[in-house]
Specification:
Arginase, Chain A; 11 helices; about 10% strand; eight-stranded parallel sheet; about 375 residues; alpha/beta
């Protein structure tokens, strides 16, 4: 049985980016509460681990000194830096809020602790739900993300000489991680997302396949809006498993955002808990040390249910469908798994399938040969 760690403490979920902002850290508390209700941490093979803040040295593996200093200054209300230079704006995606540096450093530190536990073989898998902030760049914030913890964790593994596969199933393209390793053939990045033609950040097309020795190691699978479970999983199975097996990484890093969910308010994919759990199960089959991260997700109960299912995969436990009364009464949800499939009009489903087939053909033509895989 796999040994797993879950990184969490309540302070990770207390901050608020701005009144009405879609990123609500309380979703982390809901996920923890639901897992607690299921007794997820009662087993000897599942440990609840308290995070620590990331150090400035760790942040500096990716982020510039100017940017780190600016975030620290903004966090305390100090002047001296121009917010727009670093992509912060009060009414934009990335508002400045009190304690921003501390909150971002703690969620990043949670991922660093998880990476350390995986690298030292203390656990087989560690899940840092506050992580997965994949849009942040070296010198600016982006898409609700201040520090890019997935890229920093990959830097940590690379510093130890490990080959890393990164798989991102968030509805938004993992642009910041792709950017950090675009020329590196020791890091395979795979992002399965809603096409940038329709969704932020407007990137993640097949043609973004890496440069120099990294050519063929940045893999993008952009999908049509309203793609449902069946087409989503067919495309995912066609790309991720063969590439992962061919690359044979020493460690797997996954960004498990659930804004692909059919009722998410910011995106258009139509994935259910069935499709999401199936994708996570496929990733688990790789059988290498595994660092799992959170990510997007703006339907709060969908986040709690999906990440509870994901952690169930990690600890090899099949939670009962009936949500424990203690959580159900408080939040008004009774079923862990979806029972209703989104109704996608036939013409839209046909467009989604045609788009997926064209995308798969491009990936197989342009990327598979680099890895010795026949199309």
């Amino acid at each position: 049985m796999r040994k797993a760690a879950f990184l969490y403490e309540e302070s990770l979920s207390r901050h608020e980016l701005r009144d009405g902002h879609p990123m609500r850290p309380v979703r982390l508390q809901y996920t923890f509460d639901l897992l607690q209700a299921y007794g997820a941490f009662d087993s000897e093979t599942s440990s609840l681990v308290t995070p620590r803040p990331a150090t400035e040295e760790e942040l500096g593996w990716l982020h510039t000194g100017d940017y780190i200093s600016a975030v620290r200054a903004f966090s305390t209300g100090a002047s001296g830096f121009e917010p727009m230079r670093f992509n912060f704006a009060s009414q934009g995606d990335n508002p400045i809020y009190p304690g921003m540096y501390e909150a971002a450093a703690l969620s990043t530190g949670a991922t660093m602790v998880a990476a350390e536990m995986v690298a030292s073989h203390k656990v087989d898998v560690a899940f840092s739900i506050s992580g997965g902030l994949h849009h942040a760049s070296a010198n600016h914030a982006s898409g609700f993300c201040v520090f890019n913890d997935p890229a920093l964790a990959i830097k940590y593994f690379r510093n130890r000489g490990l080959r890393v596969a990164y798989v991102d199933i968030d509805a938004h393209h993992g642009d910041g991680v792709q950017e950090a390793f675009f020329d590196d053939d020791q890091v395979l990045t795979i992002s399965v997302h809603e096409s940038g033609q329709y969704l932020f950040p407007g990137t993640g097309f097949v043609q973004e396949l890496g440069v120099g020795k990294g050519a063929g190691y940045s893999v993008n699978l952009p999908l049509f809006p309203y793609t449902g479970d069946e087409i989503y999983l067919e495309a995912f199975y066609d790309v991720a498993p063969p590439l992962l097996h061919a690359f044979a990484p020493d460690v797997l890093v996954t960004q498990l955002g659930i804004d692909s969910y059919h009722s998410d308010p910011l995106t258009h994919l139509q994935v259910t808990t069935r499709g999401y759990e199936a994708a996570v199960k496929e990733l688990a089959k790789l059988g290498v040390p595994w660092l799992a991260l959170g990510g997007g997700g703006y339907d709060l109960m969908a986040v709690a249910r999906a990440w509870t299912l994901a952690y169930g995969v990690m600890v090899e436990r099949d939670w009962p469908d009936r949500i424990p009364d203690s959580f159900a009464k408080q939040h008004g949800v009774t079923q862990l798994r979806d029972t209703v499939v989104p109704d996608i009009p036939a013409n839209v489903a046909n467009d989604a399938r045609r788009h997926a087939e064209e995308t798969l053909s491009q990936v197989k033509d342009q990327i598979f040969p680099t890895h010795g895989i026949s199309a």
